[in-house]
Amino acid sequence: MAKGPNAFRTISEAADDIGAPQHVLRFWETKFTFVSPLKRAGGRRFYRPQDIVLLKAVRRLLHDEGLTIKGVQRLHRELGVQNLAAYGDPGAGLSYSPAAMDAGNELAGGRTLPPTSANPVRLQTVLAEIEGARMRLEAVLAP
To answer: Nearest-CA neighbor of 81 among 113, 33, 141?
Structure first.
């Protein structure tokens, strides 16, 4: 009999849902304070549905988007746990591209995350801005 969508999951079930080994989930608990499954007697872990969503977000950001552990920690600090959890929902269509950040998910201080190949138009715009700045700099520094 399959569990309902709101049922708690063991670490093996969570690992299967997320697509990461059990030891990786345990490691992520040490690196991300927002990942905290329920622990029963004997240390057995039970993951709530919201824990699964957060772990999927972490997996996506680390493995699919290429962020580092420190990058995910920074996102958590700047976006909060609810916005970070949205990355765990594939139906949300979120990515850490500047276009997604410009749609109301800017980082603190008006900064955005670096562009990715998911947004080639933005990459071309940034490249043109950098080339323009380089030409202006060369004009100033030319003898």
So the answer is: 33
CA distance 89 to 94: 8
C-alpha to C-alpha distance for 72 and 85, rounded to whole angstroms: 11
3-state secondary structure of 45: strand
CA–CA gap between residue 58 and residue 48 (Å, rounded): 15
- Neighbour-count burial for 59-96, b at 16+ CB within 10 Å, e otherwise: bbbbeebebeeebbeebbebbeeeebbbbbeeeeebbb
- Residue 54 three-state SS: helix
pLDDT tens-digit profile of 90-121? 655 444 443 443 343 344 444 454 444 445 55
pLDDT digit string, tens, across residues 37-57: 998 888 899 999 888 989 999
Length of the chain: 143
CA atoms 113, 78, 67, 18: torsion sign? negative
- The Cα-based distances of 27 to 20, 78, 85 in angstroms read 11, 22, 19
Helices and strands in the chain: count of H runs, count of E runs: 7, 3
